[in-house]
Design a protein that fits this description.
Structural class: alpha+beta
Distance between the termini: 23 Å
Number of helices: 2
Helix content: 10-25%
Number of strands: 8
Strand content: 25-35%
Length: about 100
């Protein structure tokens, strides 16, 4: 199953063996979004005021070595409970943003 994660481009090192966002220390998990069409809404809710470039990580949960789960039934947001191994990231691309900072 594929899921998606928005990350500030400067926080993601494509050559590193694992990825752990800075927010992991406070949150205790990595936020992901099951449906790609929900990414813009998530980005606009939480990151619109952050002018940094973002990337979208496409994650194959079947390859993830960290445990993951939906924390509530019927959710669209699976959480990863540990560092994300690089080989579970199957694609990386820039997040699209409008001139006003809105994610598209």
């Amino acid at each position: 199953m594929l899921t998606y994660h928005l990350a500030p481009a400067e926080e993601f090192d494509p050559g590193a063996p694992t990825y752990t966002p800075r927010a992991y220390a406070a949150d205790g998990f990595i936020h992901t979004t099951r449906a790609p069409d929900l990414l813009a809404a998530v980005g606009n809710r939480y990151y619109r005021a952050d002018p940094r470039p973002y990337v979208v990580l496409t994650i194959d949960l079947g390859r993830a070595t960290a445990p993951w789960r939906y924390d509530a039934a019927g959710e669209d947001y699976p959480h990863l409970y540990g560092p994300l191994n690089r080989d579970a990231i199957v694609a990386v691309h820039p997040a699209r943003r409008a001139a006003d900072g809105a994610f598209e």
